[in-house]
């Protein structure tokens, strides 16, 4: 599950429960409900910080739940269901009317990595945690919106190749070098403090959230199109 706390301009969304934070129907629906609350309560200067407890930021889709269906066809149906309901979660993050920060204090694997990458800024631990995609090892293809997300958010085709076609595990400092992560910090507290510090800088700008969301969508047109996020005209209110 997840919890949502409002601290001044900050919305703190925390993945709770076991260490894996696997993205199954229960957790996905819980996050979607929290993001709906965030959107409804957004004001100029709002910022979302997403974090987690335990070893993992998220260990990807809930494959144990899918396999518990008891048959290959049942497992496939469950996995396809997860893929479909995770898509609007990515869309919510990419259209949220405020800056978003993923404070990654543990591993972010597969869909867990995609969850983190759906935020504007990623901050990692320097002493623990990796980003990695394990679909090739598991014999799973990538959903179209995953491919569009990685192509939109990663500037290096070589880094994307190594992450997706080699299953390379990337630690914090390397993730900074390839332009995926904003910065790294020691320990869970270091990541949390850095996320708050960055959030304070962003909140101080008091941007119009609707304008922020529209500019973000225009910055990533490919994934926005795949997710069905249509742009809309915004009046210029400060001129």
Q: What is the molecular shape?
A: globular
Mean pLDDT: 94
Could you state the order of secondary-structure elements as H and E? EEHEEHHEEHEEHHHEHEHHH
Described by its quaternary structure, the protein is single chain
Superfamily at the CATH H level?
2-enoyl-CoA Hydratase, Chain A, domain 1
**What is CATH's topology name?**
2-enoyl-CoA Hydratase, Chain A, domain 1
Number of domains: 1
Could you give the count of β-strands? 10
Residue share in helices?
40-55%
Outline the low-pLDDT stretches. Answer: none
What is the topological layout?
Elements: E1 2-7, E2 10-15, H1 25-41, E3 47-52, E4 56-58, H2 63-67, H3 72-94, E5 100-104, E6 107-109, H4 111-117, E7 121-125, E8 130-132, H5 135-138, H6 144-153, H7 157-165, E9 170-171, H8 172-177, E10 183-185, H9 187-203, H10 209-219, H11 221-226
Short description:
This protein has 239 residues and is an alpha/beta fold. It has helices at residues 25-41, 63-67, 72-94, 111-117, 135-138, 144-153, 157-165, 172-177, 187-203, 209-219, 221-226, and strands spanning 2-7, 10-15, 47-52, 56-58, 100-104, 107-109, 121-125, 130-132, 170-171, 183-185.
